TrEMBL record:
Listed GO MF terms: monooxygenase activity
The UniProt record lists the keyword Nucleus: no
PANTHER family xref list: UBIQUINONE BIOSYNTHESIS MONOOXYGENASE COQ6, MITOCHONDRIAL
UniProt xrefs under Pfam families: FAD_binding_3
Keywords assigned by UniProt, alphabetized: Monooxygenase, Oxidoreductase
Protein's UniProt keywords contain tRNA processing: no
Classification via InterPro entries: FAD-bd (IPR002938), FAD/NAD-bd_sf (IPR036188), Ubi_Hdrlase_CS (IPR018168), UbiH/COQ6_monooxygenase (IPR051205)
Span of domain FAD-binding: 4-71, 128-324
Coiled coil: none
Phylogenetic placement of the source organism: Bacteria, Pseudomonadati, Pseudomonadota, Betaproteobacteria, Burkholderiales
Gene3D superfamilies in the cross-refs: FAD/NAD(P)-binding domain
Protein name (Swiss-Prot/TrEMBL): FAD-dependent monooxygenase
């Protein structure tokens, strides 16, 4: 049986990106998955918010510039509203001195383009069963079976919330504006995207307490739309469902450790954060960039599975992943609380932060990976 240097387990965006990145270095990579199945047409209502660092990586992998035009929507402004009238925090690309704050990307289109790129990567082979390799990279997501078999601690702290995703159409153009409402206890986000109606579509990500989410999922479309329009207050126009709805439970988790002799964890297999900041895939792609950089600069006499080498990756990602987990966890606790004194404080805090441009610039730089 052919020996590979790296076996990538998991054929989502993180796993495919890692296989492409390491294959570009000339490493012999096996990707556990099915190229044919990955290219199958299916409805995927998810939308990814990608920062500048993620876009750079995808561009280096020759994927970004090959995406269909209707799969990408730039975000020029972000409006964050509290649960009281007048509580508003705004971010503008113009104020930050950048062309755009982020890009919203069609999840299905990105996965398909990554799969297409892999077909033309001479150093990557798609395999349907595990093969021997010096390094196994686990990118299997939150429910990784191999992670459990390695004895890695992965305690997921459930938020008791569930995210609902869908695609929406509006009677008004989105104009590249992403909107978010912290409504205690739910968080509603509308992400501008070009499908199904160019210039007038949104990706919905709505985080609600578990039972409230399940009740909404059980509602007919008309009742769901009425609740959604009431929550957004008409600021994004009249919203209608353009697709079905999907949902998943929300939790925070951090694997410990994230590496060992001959193995390493990346993406949701290594860490989970709340989606309110839209940073889940960005963290996973940052893992990919960090591991690729470590392996590209390894000493010639080291194996790619050398544990000391992999510790460099773990150290590089420890602080950023922990900080984002703390940030999203803290924001949820502050904005999900229904206690009146805290509601008053956080709404005043949004307005106060909105009036301090240097702090807004610092937050934007950190979030966007500029």
């Amino acid at each position: 049986m052919q020996k590979y240097e790296v076996l990538v387990r998991g054929s989502g965006c993180v796993g495919r990106s890692l296989a492409l990145a390491l294959g570009a270095q000339g490493l012999r990579v096996a990707l556990l998955g099915s190229a044919e199945a990955s290219l199958a047409q299916r409805e995927d209502v998810r939308s990814y918010a990608l920062n500048a660092a993620s876009v750079r990586l995808l561009r280096e992998l020759k994927v970004w510039d090959s995406l269909p035009l209707d799969a990408i929507s730039p975000v020029y402004d972000i409006k964050v509203s509290g649960d009281q009238a007048g509580a508003l925090l705004e971010f503008s690309a113009w104020q930050q001195g950048v062309a755009e704050l982020a890009f919203i990307v069609d999840a299905g289109a990105l996965e398909q383009q990554l799969a297409t790129a892999l077909r033309f990567s001479p150093h990557v082979k798609i395999v349907d069963a595990p093969v021997p390799a010096d390094l196994t990279a686990l990118c299997e997501g939150r429910d990784s079976q191999q992670r459990a078999e390695l004895g890695v601690r992965f305690e997921a702290h459930a938020y008791g919330h569930r995210a609902i995703a869908a695609r929406l159409s509006s009677n008004l153009p989105h104009q590249g504006v992403a909107r978010q409402w912290f409504r205690s206890p739910d968080v509603l986000a509308l992400l501008p995207i070009e499908k199904p109606s160019a210039g007038c579509s949104y990706g919905l990500v709505w985080s609600l307490p578990e039972q409230q989410a399940l009740d909404l999922l059980a509602e007919p479309d008309a009742e769901f739309e009425a609740a959604m329009n009431a929550a957004s207050g008409g600021e994004a126009g009249i919203l209608t469902l353009a697709t079905g709805r999907s949902s998943w439970p929300l939790a925070r988790a951090q694997a410990e450790p994230v590496q060992g002799p001959g193995w390493v964890l990346l993406g949701d297999a290594a860490h989970l954060v709340h989606p309110l900041a839209g940073q889940g895939l960005n963290l996973g792609l940052a893992d990919v960039a960090a591991l690729a950089a470590v392996l590209a600069t390894k000493e010639a006499w080291r194996s790619v599975g050398d544990e000391r080498l992999l510790r460099r990756f773990a150290r590089a990602r420890m602080a950023p992943n922990w900080a984002m987990g703390e940030l999203t966890d803290g924001l949820l606790k502050v904005f999900a609380s229904e206690a009146m004194p805290l509601r008053e404080l956080r709404n005043k805090g949004l307005n106060a932060l909105n009036s301090v441009p240097p702090l807004k610039r610092w937050l934007t730089t950190r979030a966007l990976g500029l």
